[in-house]
Amino acid sequence: MISFRGMPNRRDVLTLMAGASLLPMSGFLSRGANAADPIKVAAIYTVPVEQQWVSRIHKAAMAAKERGDIEYVFSEKVSNTDYERVMREYCEAGQQLIVGEAFAVEDAARAVAKDYADRAFLIGSSFKPDDAVPNFAVFDNYIQDASYLTGMIAGAMTKSGNIGMVGGYPIPEVNRLMNAFVAGVKETKPDAKFQVAFIGSWFDPPKAKETALAQIDAGADLLYAERFGVSDAAKEKGVLAVGNVIDTQADYPDTVVASALWHFEPTLDAAIANVKAGTFKADDYGRYSFMKEGGCSLAPLGTFEGKVPAEVMEKVKKREADIKSGAVTTVIDDNEPKSS
């Protein structure tokens, strides 16, 4: 997840506009770009690029740059109050595709898009596309499929059945992953109990660690690490952790038993293709984060390979195959998870 998204009490998600209209027939978007030429992409991040959520976007952009599909520039640690200015500066500089997030600056970001109708905007948002802003597409990390699988593994690995969960804010982007994890745990450990806490920040490792340590003191022997700092607490106290968005197993080889990975490449690559074709429009790119689209996966178990009960891993692999085939759909539950 990205930082400074605002407080969790938000207005209802806008209804997805069916058949969103194409961009106005002016500027580079209507003509389409030469398929052989890289398009100019600028990304705006409110946190350092090493933060989990942002790191996945940055990784995908770097891969597209290395392929020669894009020219890529970015700004990190941009404050909410400065976000609109940076967006406008990139537009004025001739950047063709602007990537970023609008979680705390929704109205301002859409206003910028209206003012630059010949630019494409691929923006992280809890809201839906609106054909009143036909060049403004939205995305988010719908990785509930992989989160469910990590929950199944966690349920098999906890001994006490007491699991701690530390998140940033209780907003849909966090809630849906936590809830999918809980559902996965209950498949393999039906009587599991959960301690749920939110630290009120997207990047505060010391606070996340402190919160996790309190949960361990209260009996948790496995932690869901939605934030940086949680795995540090788990390592210090000799308990297990489950990662989110990125794979930190190499950094915590005796601690991180499983991780749900987000792959932003399908999302970005679809946007690049549409910009080049001149068909970019208001659309919801969230679907590209689904496992069947290649947008998420279960990370390799690494040092925990062979340590998870074989019968549980068979169930995990069966569930994974069913998700990829479309036979099973992971429930998307955006409600705030509660301790139990």
Summarize the structure.
The protein contains 10 helices and 11 strands. By secondary structure, it is α/β, with parallel strands linked by helices. The chain is globular, with a radius of gyration of 20 Å.
Mean pLDDT: 90
| Helix content range | 25-40%
Shape: globular
Name of the CATH first level of the largest domain: Alpha Beta
- Rg calc: 20 Å
Number of strands: 11
**SSE string, helices as H and strands as E:** HEHEHEHEEHEHEHEHEEHEH
Q: What is the CATH architecture assignment of the largest domain?
A: 3-Layer(aba) Sandwich
Instruction: Give the N-to-C terminal Cα separation.
Output: 24 Å
- Across the major sheet, the strand order is 7-6-8-9-10-11
SS strand fraction: 15-25%
**Number of helical runs?**
10
Walk me through what this model shows.
With 340 residues, this protein is an alpha/beta fold. The protein has 2 domains: 27-141 and 264-291, Response regulator (Rossmann fold), CATH 3.40.50; 144-262 and 309-325, Rossmann fold (3-Layer(aba) Sandwich), CATH 3.40.50.2300. The chain is built from 10 helices and 11 strands. It has helices at 27-31, 52-67, 80-92, 106-115, 144-157, 172-188, 205-217, 230-237, 265-277, 310-325, and strands at 39-44, 70-75, 97-101, 120-124, 136-139, 162-167, 193-198, 222-225, 240-245, 256-262, 296-298. It has a 6-stranded mixed beta sheet with strand order 7-6-8-9-10-11, with helices on both faces. Strands 2-1-3-4-5 form a 5-stranded parallel beta sheet, with helices on both faces. Helix 5 runs antiparallel to helix 10 and helix 7 (205-217) packs across helix 8. The longest helix is centred in the middle third of the chain and has 17 residues, at 172-188. The protein starts with 26 loop residues before the first helix and ends in a 15-residue tail after the last helix. The model is unreliable at 1-28 (pLDDT under 50).
